[in-house]
Specification:
alpha+beta, FAD/NAD(P)-binding domain, D-Amino Acid Oxidase, Chain A, domain 2, 2 domains, nine-stranded mixed β-sheet, eight-stranded mixed β-sheet, 9 helices, 20 strands, about 30% helix, binds flavin-adenine dinucleotide
Length: about 375
C-alpha cells in the first residue's frame, strides 16, 4: 500500500527522545508518523534509572512529559575518588535551583511520554513496525514500513532517526571503553536526604542516585569483572558494592542486576538530505555524570524549534543546517566531558591520583567554578557565557 501525499515528519524510534520530539510537534500543523519496532509498553521494563537535569524538567513539563510523582529530587552531589584525597560537594541552593536534577525510572519516563500519544493531533503511531527501505527522492524520502498488517510505503519531508545506539559502522566514530555498567537498586541503612554520589575508582566510576527511598546504582567495571559480578547472589553483590564505595554508606538489600556494555559512538554527520539523527542515534555516551538523555532531549527540543520556525517544508535544508549549527557545541563538549572523566579517573597512577585530588579540592574551594560545573550539567552548552 502506498500513500501519495508526503507526511511532514516520520520518526523512527519511540524511546524517550523520539517520544519527546513527537510531543513537541503535536498540534503544530504537522502530520507526524511515529514508528516503533516493539510495543510501547515494552519500555516499561527497562531497568535503567535516569538522572534528569533541572533543564530537562523545564523542557518536559510543558510537553506533558514530566513524571512528577515518580521523580526523586537530587539536592546535593558528592564527587570523590576512592583511595585518594579531595572531594567536591555541589548543592542546589548555591546554584539557585530547588533541585540539581531528578531521578526517574526509564520505564516511568517512557510511559508518561507515551501516554495518549496516538491520540495527539496530527500523530499517527505504528507499533511493532520496522523500516525496511529508505529511498531519497528530491523533495521527499520514500520509506517502506513492515507493519503487523503488511508492508506500507510512506513519503515524508523529513525522516528523523531516534532509534537509539546503532550498530558499529563507518558512519560513526566508535570507541569501546572495555567497561560494562551493572545497574541495580539498593536499600541504604540510613535515609539518602536527596544526595547523589559519584565515586571514581580505578575500575570505573560508581554512581548512586537517590530513587524513592533507595538508591539506583550504576557500577562501572571492566567487562570481564562485570560478567562475574552479574553471577553473584545479593549478599556477595552488596559486598562488592561496599568495597567499591567505601564506608560512607551501608547497604542492606538489593534488587536484580542488569548490564549495559559501554562505548562512545559519535555519528560523523548529523544530517543527510531530508534525514536527521537525534538522541542516542546521533551520539551514545558513557553514563558517567548522566548526560545521555539530557543531551538527546535538547536535540529533540532544538529540532522541534527548527521545524516550527521553518516554512511548510519540515525537511528543508535550511532547517537541518540550523539544527546542526545549534547542536554542535553542546554535543561535542558533552562527549568530551564524559570521555575525559572516564580517561582521567579510570586508572590508579599515583601522579594522576594526586592531580585529581587537587582538582576536586580546588573545585570545592571555588564556588564560581563549582556553580559553572553545575550549570553545565543542568543546561548543557547554554551554560557557557
Ligand atoms: C546504564 C546507563 C545509565 C544511564 N544513565 C543516564 C542518566 O542518568 N541520565 C541520562 O541523561 N542518560 C543516561 N543514560 C543514557 C540514556 O539511557 C540514553 O541517552 C537514552 O535512553 C537515549 O534515548 P533514545 O530515545 O535516544 O534511545 P533509546 O532509549 O535507545 O530508545 C530507542 C527506541 O528506538 C526503538 N528502535 C530501535 N531500533 C528501531 C528500529 N529499527 N525501528 C523502530 N524502532 C526502533 C527502540 O525499541 C527504542 O524504543 C544511561 C545509559 C545507560 C546505559
Amino acid at each position: 500500500m502506498a500513500d501519495a501525499t508526503p507526511v511532514d515528519v516520520l520518526i523512527v524510534g519511540a524511546g524517550p527522545v523520539g517520544l519527546s520530539l513527537v510531543r513537541a510537534l503535536a498540534g503544530r500543523r504537522f502530520r507526524v508518523v511515529l514508528v516503533e519496532r516493539s510495543a510501547l509498553t515494552a519500555q516499561r521494563s527497562d531497568p535503567r534509572a535516569l538522572a534528569l537535569s533541572e533543564g530537562a524538567r523545564q523542557i518536559l513539563e510543558p510537553l506533558g512529559g514530566w513524571p512528577a510523582s515518580a521523580a526523586t529530587a537530587i539536592r546535593t552531589i558528592h564527587v570523590s575518588q576512592r583511595g585518594g584525597f579531595g572531594r567536591t560537594l555541589i548543592e542546589a541552593a548555591e546554584c539557585g535551583v530547588a533541585a540539581l536534577g531528578h531521578v526517574v525510572h526509564y520505564g516511568e519516563l517512557a510511559s508518561v511520554l507515551a501516554g495518549g500519544i496516538g491520540e495527539l493531533p496530527g500523530i499517527e503511531l505504528h507499533e511493532n513496525t520496522t523500516v525496511t527501505a529508505v529511498i531519497h527522492g528530491g523533495d521527499a524520502v520514500r520509506v517502506t514500513l513492515r507493519t503487523p498488517t503488511g508492508d506500507r510505503d510512506i513519503a515524508t519531508r523529513l525522516l528523523v532517526h531516534a532509534e537509539g545506539a546503532p550498530m558499529q559502522d563507518d558512519t560513526f566514530r566508535f570507541l569501546s571503553y572495555g567497561q560494562t555498567a551493572v545497574v541495580a537498586e539498593v536499600t541504604p541503612a540510613s535515609p539518602h536526604s536527596g544526595r547523589a554520589w559519584e565515586r571514581f575508582t580505578p575500575e570505573g566510576p560508581l554512581a548512586l542516585l537517590p530513587l524513592g527511598t533507595g538508591y539506583a546504582v550504576v557500577l562501572t567495571l571492566p567487562t570481564a569483572h562485570a560478567t562475574v559480578v552479574l553471577t553473584l547472589d545479593d549478599e556477595a553483590f552488596l559486598g562488592i558494592l561496599q568495597t567499591h564505595f567505601g564506608g560512607d554508606l551501608k547497604f542492606t538489600a538489593c534488587g536484580p542486576r542488569a548490564a549495559f556494555p559501554l562505548a562512545l559512538r559519535m555519528r560523523r554527520e548529523l544530517t543527510t538530505p531530508r534525514q536527521v539523527w537525534i538522541g542516542n542515534a546521533a551520539q551514545t555516551l558513557h553514563p558517567v555524570s548522566g548526560q545521555g538523555f539530557n543531551l538527546g532531549l535538547r536535540d529533540a527540543a532544538v529540532l522541534a524549534e527548527a521545524i516550527w520556525r521553518g516554512g511548510p517544508d519540515a525537511g528543508a535544508p535550511i532547517n537541518l543546517a540550523g539544527y546542526v549549527h545549534r547542536r554542535r557545541l553542546d554535543r561535542l563538549t558533552s562527549a568530551a566531558f564524559t570521555d575525559g572523566l572516564v580517561r582521567v579517573f579510570s586508572n590508579d597512577l599515583a601522579p594522576l591520583r594526586l592531580a585529581r585530588g587537587i582538582g576536586l579540592a580546588a573545585l570545592d574551594l571555588c564556588p564560581p567554578a563549582r556553580r559553572f560545573v553545575a550549570r553545565r550539567m543542568i543546561w548543557g552548552a547554554r551554560a557557557w557565557p
